[in-house]
């Protein structure tokens, strides 16, 4: 019995081990002579989407390109508008600066002119006193001064000194006296006033030969024209 039991155990151990078929191998069952139908295995993955035609893919690209072009055109238009505004503002700025400088120059000239002719009314009244001094000096004959009358000589010298000092003071403030007959000037209607005309042998026509009243200039402008006599031979 023991030998038989050992022989059976050795035979069982010597039997070949059957290969394990894969779990997903198709199982066929034979019922009689017919084979069992094959089992279908289904995938859980979603079905693949069909490829879209090239035209359909190109259409969205074109729609995206159009808004990009519109945005670029708008930006270009805005940039051009800003450039025009800059040019306009620069032109206005330069004009404003030029107007301001012209205003400054004109204001300076007006202020200077006001300073130069602020004493015009006072000077016009003052020249009458100067004329009186000039008349007083001209009324004293030269032969009377030569007689040796010391009082008359002193009075004459005092009047002459007063006139000289007054004329120097007036000249400092731009008021000057002129006598056209001293240098034999040509008649100038801008600074002379012809009182009479008379022939003078040996003198050219239009020459001033006599001064009835001396003229005055205030800062280069005629304050009072000189009253003169003019030569007229023809």
Automatic annotation (TrEMBL):
Pfam families: GrpE (PF01025). GO terms for molecular function: adenyl-nucleotide exchange factor activity; protein homodimerization activity; protein-folding chaperone binding; unfolded protein binding. It is found in: Mitochondrion matrix. Residues 51-79 have a biased composition (Basic and acidic residues). Keywords: Chaperone, Mitochondrion. The keyword Chaperone applies. Gene3D superfamilies: 3.90.20.20, Head domain of nucleotide exchange factor GrpE. GO terms for biological process: protein folding; protein import into mitochondrial matrix. Residues 44-79 are annotated as: Disordered. InterPro entries: GrpE (IPR000740), GrpE_CC (IPR013805), GrpE_head (IPR009012). One of its GO terms (cellular component) is PAM complex, Tim23 associated import motor. Belongs to the GrpE family. Essential component of the PAM complex, a complex required for the translocation of transit peptide-containing proteins from the inner membrane into the mitochondrial matrix in an ATP-dependent manner. HAMAP family: GrpE. This is GrpE protein homolog. It comes from Trematosphaeria pertusa. The lineage of its organism: Eukaryota, Fungi, Dikarya, Ascomycota, Pezizomycotina.
């Amino acid at each position: 019995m023991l030998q038989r039991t050992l022989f059976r155990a050795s035979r069982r151990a010597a039997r070949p081990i059957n290969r394990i078929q894969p779990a997903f191998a198709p199982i066929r069952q034979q019922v009689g002579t017919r084979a069992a139908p094959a089992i279908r295995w289904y995938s859980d993955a979603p079905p693949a989407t069909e490829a879209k035609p090239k035209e359909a893919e190109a259409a969205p690209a074109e729609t995206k390109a159009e808004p990009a072009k519109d945005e670029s055109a708008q930006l270009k238009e805005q940039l051009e508008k800003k450039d025009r505004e800059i040019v306009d503002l620069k032109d206005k700025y330069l004009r404003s600066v030029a107007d301001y400088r012209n205003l400054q120059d004109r204001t300076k000239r007006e202020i200077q002119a006001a300073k130069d002719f602020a004493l015009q009314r006072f000077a016009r009244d003052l020249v009458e006193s100067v004329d009186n001094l000039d008349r007083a000096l001209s009324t004293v004959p030269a032969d009377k001064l030569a007689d040796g009358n010391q009082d008359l000589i002193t009075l004459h010298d005092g009047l002459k000194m007063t006139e000289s000092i007054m004329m120097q003071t007036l000249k400092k403030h731009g008021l000057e006296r002129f006598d056209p007959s001293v240098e034999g000037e040509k008649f100038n209607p801008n600074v002379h006033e012809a009182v009479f005309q008379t022939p003078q042998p040996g003198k050219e026509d239009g020459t001033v030969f006599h001064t009835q009243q001396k003229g005055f200039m205030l800062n280069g402008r005629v304050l009072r024209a000189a009253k003169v006599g003019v030569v007229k031979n023809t």
